[in-house]
Design goal:
The chain is mostly helical. Helices cover 54% and strands 2% of the residues. Helix 7 (161-172) crosses helix 8.
Length: 210
């Protein structure tokens, strides 16, 4: 399926912000790195998507995760939110891809913004707490979905994996490492999250992540 060169849809922008923050947390990179990848890729298929705005939108989401003390559940929340926004136009309406009745793949006017993404994530988080949210599929990401190959290719363009593996190795070798791989992974994500916040100067890192 091919995008038309108009404005990025809000639901695509929401997914991209969520994925950028996930990369920031999981791989311990500077926020601009995943955002640059997506801003550049999206600008090739839509009207220009600003790197600066995408970074600010991602930082708004990080601040929300801190304020709500979501901590080691952040990756799961972002993945589930991205899955929901990608596959559903609303809780009762599944998004269709392909055919004459497929989802609109570009907007005639710009509707996305960091505040809009934060509003959508906040609403999804409260639905999650109330156990009424649409839950994602394990292992799903923009890089694994096949409905939109252009977006999949952008998401796959990542050089973060080796750094993540190094960090995981450090935690595995720690004397306080818990016995299960899933718990190791959770500790890695949370540790990298705290560590990475120091690289985000516009975020108040004095807040406790407890």
């Amino acid at each position: 399926m091919v995008f038309s060169k108009k404005y990025c849809p809000v639901w695509v922008y929401d997914c991209v912000v969520a994925q950028s923050v996930s990369d920031f947390i999981l791989y311990g990179v500077d926020m601009a790195q995943p955002c640059r990848k997506f801003a550049g890729g999206l600008t090739e298929i839509f009207e220009e998507v600003s790197l600066e705005e995408l970074v600010r939108a991602s930082e708004l989401v990080v601040q929300f995760l801190i304020e709500e003390k979501i901590n080691e559940d952040s990756i799961d929340l972002l993945s589930n939110f991205s899955y929901y926004r990608f596959h559903y136009a609303s809780k009762k309406t599944r998004r269709k891809f392909g055919g004459i009745f497929g989802s609109k793949l570009s907007d005639g006017v710009r509707e996305y913004s960091g505040n809009e993404t934060l509003k959508n994530l906040r609403a999804y988080y409260y639905e999650t707490r109330s156990e009424v949210a649409v839950v994602g599929s394990p292992g799903w990401s923009l890089a694994t979905q096949t409905e939109l190959p252009d977006l999949q290719e952008i998401a796959r363009n990542s050089s973060f994996q080796s750094q993540s593996d190094d960090l995981l190795g450090e935690i595995v070798s720690s004397p306080i490492t818990p016995p299960t791989r899933s718990r190791i992974r959770q500790q890695q994500q949370f540790w990298v999250f705290e560590h990475s916040l120091k690289q985000c100067p516009s975020i108040n890192c004095d807040k406790k992540l407890s």
